[in-house]
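Dear H.,

Thanks for agreeing to be a second pair of eyes. The structure we're designing against is below in token form, covering all 354 positions.
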């Protein structure tokens, strides 16, 4: 700390991302990255874009990405906002839709970036406990909140609410902005995108990081009514006009157009998830029903912290949260079948006293 720090820099508690270690080679199942590479068409598009044109600024509107996303979802390009990773899009939502002192609400157990953004932008928040079964309690959000932010599927539980539940929720909360973070929706949940036409209070946020295997390029987007999108554009253009670079824009367009590859890798991940879940259940693990590319699991015999450390010592990285109510769980990203076989073999060893 120094005398030059602002009160903001002094008072915030930054988000702590999952480890990206370089000390040895791990089987990396800790940050929900895709175990498969991006589509070959994406790599070709990146190569094409790696040329002298890099001297030129990118399109500040990322129009080609907006068009590709709007084609994919059959919505209007003006209903799409593109940003530098969905983390950035989520961050921009705070100054775009909330004043200092306004209140936002989200589940107590969810993506831990949400309270960090709220603190950074001076927005108050109320965190609502999950139900006993770890589902999001859609009936208990405070009536005086100006907005509600949920991840669907939720993280780190992987549990999704159905589209009918989401629609009821939107109907009951027409006076509130409902932001749904669909980072994991492509792994088996229902997207609420078809509802944006009917609900002006709905903003959906998605990312290319997980299901399209592009975490390294940082591309995310928001979908909603044109008035919501305009607020995001106004804030973004007051902060940084060129958030998405040329290479990322070219990659994003190729990724969204290659539906076959996308379906293939999402299908593989879902199958691996289900096989792994069955094996873990046979070993006595409690496995929450996941619609995401990770499993949230616990075991009566070994604590979450201990599982995390044992796996790390064995070269397998998973995520453990030292948070009340989930301290006994570990979150395991779904890797390849080979990686999951090694994981299951190690876990079986610990459980059976190896
Ligand atoms: C991974 C993740 C994000 C962030 O994705 P980026 O687009 O890589 O910034 C957002 N929300 C949730 C719930 C996530 O798990």
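And this is the sequence the design step returned. I haven't edited it by hand at all.
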């Amino acid at each position: 700390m120094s005398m030059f720090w602002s009160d903001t820099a002094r008072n915030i508690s930054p988000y702590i991302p999952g480890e990206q270690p370089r000390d040895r080679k791990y089987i990396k199942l800790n940050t929900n990255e895709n175990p498969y590479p991006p589509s070959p068409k994406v790599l070709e598009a990146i190569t094409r874009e790696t040329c002298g044109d890099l001297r030129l600024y990118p399109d500040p509107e990322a129009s080609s990405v907006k068009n590709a996303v709007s084609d994919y979802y059959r919505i209007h390009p003006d209903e799409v906002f593109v940003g530098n990773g969905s983390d950035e899009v989520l961050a921009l939502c705070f100054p775009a839709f909330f004043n200092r002192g306004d209140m936002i609400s989200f589940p107590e157990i969810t993506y831990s970036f949400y309270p960090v953004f709220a603190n950074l932008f001076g927005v108050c928040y109320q965190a609502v406990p999950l139900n006993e079964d770890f589902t999001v309690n859609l009936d208990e959000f405070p009536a005086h909140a100006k907005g509600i932010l949920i991840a669907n599927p939720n993280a780190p539980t992987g549990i999704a609410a159905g589209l009918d539940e989401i629609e009821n929720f939107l109907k009951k909360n027409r006076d509130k902005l409902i932001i749904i973070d669909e980072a994991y929706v492509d792994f088996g949940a229902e997207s609420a995108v078809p509802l944006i036409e009917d609900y002006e209070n709905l903003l959906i946020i998605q990312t290319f990081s997980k299901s399209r295997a592009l975490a390294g390029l940082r591309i995310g987007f928001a979908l909603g009514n044109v008035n919501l999108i305009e607020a995001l554009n106004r804030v973004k253009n007051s902060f940084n006009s060129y958030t998405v670079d040329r290479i990322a824009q070219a990659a994003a367009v190729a990724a969204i157009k290659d539906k076959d590859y996308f379906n293939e890798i999402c299908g593989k991940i879902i199958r691996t998830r289900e096989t792994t879940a069955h094996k873990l259940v046979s070993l006595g693990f409690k496995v929450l029903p996941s619609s995401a590319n990770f499993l949230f699991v616990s075991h009566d015999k070994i604590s979450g912290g201990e599982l995390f450390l044992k796996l790390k010592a064995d070269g397998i990285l998973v995520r453990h949260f030292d948070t009340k109510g989930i301290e006994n769980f570990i979150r395991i990203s779904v890797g390849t079948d080979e990686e999951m076989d090694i994981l299951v073999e190690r876990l079986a060893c610990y459980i059976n006293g190896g």
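Two observations from my side: The mean pLDDT is 97. The first strand starts at residue 27 and ends at 28.

Warmly,
E.
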